[in-house]
């Protein structure tokens, strides 16, 4: 143990003799780990938020298409859908989007009659849905963007061009900020007024099916009843989110490829050989009695200390980037709705694969690249190494 500690002390002294080089290498590797870790944790955080969002979604959603576009669906369809074997109940849903000119964000408006029970809980203990006309509940992102508190009014432009300003009765909190951040819940009557949806129509119909195995069968029967119907299962929603995040993260991955190539060039340059001063240092160590094993351990300590420090610094930088700066480098591209969605925090929760990837990216190549030329010099005669 004493011998290993002395080799470690020699490694620290060697790094301290050339602080500029050590710092430059550490910064370059830390930057690469920072970019990769930020991208991976941002994508994972958005996936986690999407799965939380869909955990309370209905097993099947029925929409109506006209000319390939989403159109309001007759509420009368619910009777025939409920008659299908395997369907427990249906819920006509009234929801839509409204652009808010003062903030430049797009609000999601939702009729209170179809809000999933138990999913949304206001922060101040008010009821989970508005109890009377002219009131609303808003998400935290909307409240912050419009500087709203309980009792304030939220001006909205109705479908007929008039101004509708419901009073805020509470601010939602939930496990999934992706679900509630831009949400405004109104009584269904008010939601119809703002969105221009008639009483006999709904935005879509949520179909609740107890057995997951019967979802595809029910969807097929719905499409047989109405050729212009489109069915979307919860499984398809999850697959869509995964595909979207994979595609968007792939864009950034392609941009990061240049950084990875630069990193590879640095590693290759390091593996190509030692400098004259480094070779002489190895020769001197061999001349004073160090074995080839001791020399390799010294180089491993030097490379390992630099690479581990770079990996930790990059990983901590990625955490700060996501927590304090909301993933500013990647979030807008990954989230979508870049100019219309209020900022929300994606909590980084590093897992084993992410940690292993960052360590493998920063530690393994650099350590191996340092050992190869050191081994060549260590097995060479000390006199010839010193003389060059």
What would you say about this model in short?
This protein is 54% helix and 16% strand. With 388 residues, the protein is an alpha+beta fold.
Describe the protein.
- With 388 residues, the protein is of the alpha+beta class.
- The protein folds into two domains: 199 residues, no CATH class; 176 residues, no CATH class.
- The chain contains 14 helices and 15 strands.
- The strands form four sheets. It has a six-stranded mixed beta sheet with strand order 5-6-12-8-11-7. Strands 1, 2, 4, 14 and 15 form a five-stranded antiparallel beta sheet that branches.
- Strand 5 and strand 6 form a beta hairpin.
- The chain is elongated, with a radius of gyration of 30 Å.
- How much is the average pLDDT? 78
Strand order of the largest sheet: 5-6-12-8-11-7
* Envelope shape: elongated
Helix-strand pattern: HHEEEHEEEEEHEEEHEHEEHEHHHHHHH
Q: Determine the number of helices (DSSP H or I, runs of at least 4 residues).
A: 14
Structural class: alpha+beta
Total domain units: 2
What's the N-to-C terminus distance? 33 Å
Poorly predicted runs: none
DSSP strand content: 15-25%
Report the count of strand segments. Answer: 15
Estimate the helix proportion, in percent. 40-55%
Please outline the major beta sheet.
6 strands, mixed
Radius of gyration: 30 Å
